[in-house]
Design goal:
Length: 265
């Protein structure tokens, strides 16, 4: 399966938890730290995995915020192989003065959006400025452009918190902690190597294909042209070359997983 998050600029944090939860068991998906340093964890508490097979996540420089949470956390757990190019690098969350959930009327004087804090994937790392780094680099139409939080004026610095693979529920009020522990602590998502063990051969195969693909090499030359404009460009030739290579990686991963499951060398 390929999850295409290219140019997905994100959404609400609970939505990121819901999407990531389709591919993992119970566990922390994202942690948020407010301006006072308080840390809260957003979890998958259901453990109802929809798909547990080989997963490729395709990202580009315009993949931001909630999509970075999905890609970063599933990568942290070893649940997915991330391909494409480094993401936008937005590791902060905002709130609005307009309370849309309560159907509040818009203030005639205007509304404002305020940065409240930062978010982190389960490894404790933040994508702020640095983005989610891909396991396999597949350049796309945005790869040569200056896109990302690091190109903004006065961006927040990058920082980290402690990893949270072993969830101690410390952010949950004591009155609820015991009950939640009984329902939640079994079947937690563990760090996996089922798919990441093949990274070396996946990278080697991908690099060889791209080096020998004349159409792709022409594409790389074109995007390095200083007059190149990405906006009007969706495909190169008849194919989305970045997706095509992501599909090749997915085929390799599925094949390697299958022969390993069957006990072949």
């Amino acid at each position: 399966l390929i999850l295409d998050l290219r140019s997905n600029t994100g959404g609400l944090l609970p939505q990121a938890v819901e999407v990531a939860s389709l591919f993992m068991s119970k566990g922390i998906v994202v942690s948020i730290k407010d301006c006072s340093g308080n840390i809260q964890h957003l979890r998958n508490t259901e453990g109802k995995t929809t798909f547990d097979g080989p997963l490729i996540i395709l990202v580009n420089k315009a993949s931001a915020s909630a999509s970075e949470i999905v890609a970063g956390t599933l990568q942290d757990y070893g649940r997915a192989i991330v391909v494409g190019e480094e993401t936008f690098g937005k590791g902060s969350f905002q709130t609005f003065s307009l309370d849309a959930a309560k159907n509040a009327k818009i203030n005639a004087a205007g509304e404002f959006k305020v940065t409240r804090g930062r978010y982190y994937t389960v490894s404790g790392k933040s994508p702020q400025l640095v983005g989610v780094q891909t396991d396999i680099n597949i350049p796309g139409i945005l790869s040569e452009l200056d896109i990302g939080e690091k190109f903004s004026k006065y961006p927040l610095e990058n920082d980290e918190i402690a990893p949270n693979f072993d969830d101690d529920l410390s952010d949950v009020p004591m009155i609820h902690r015991k009950r939640l522990s009984l329902l939640y602590k079994h079947n937690l998502q563990q760090k996996m190597t089922n798919f990441t063990q093949y990274l070396d051969i996946l990278k080697k195969n991908s690099n060889t294909r791209l080096e020998n693909n004349k159409n792709y090499q022409s594409f790389l030359t074109e995007i390095k042209n200083k007059n190149f404009e990405a906006k009007p460009v969706e495909l190169f030739g008849l194919n989305d070359l970045q997706m095509q290579e992501a599909l090749n990686v997915a085929k390799d991963l599925s094949y390697l997983t299958e022969i390993n499951d069957k006990g072949f060398e």
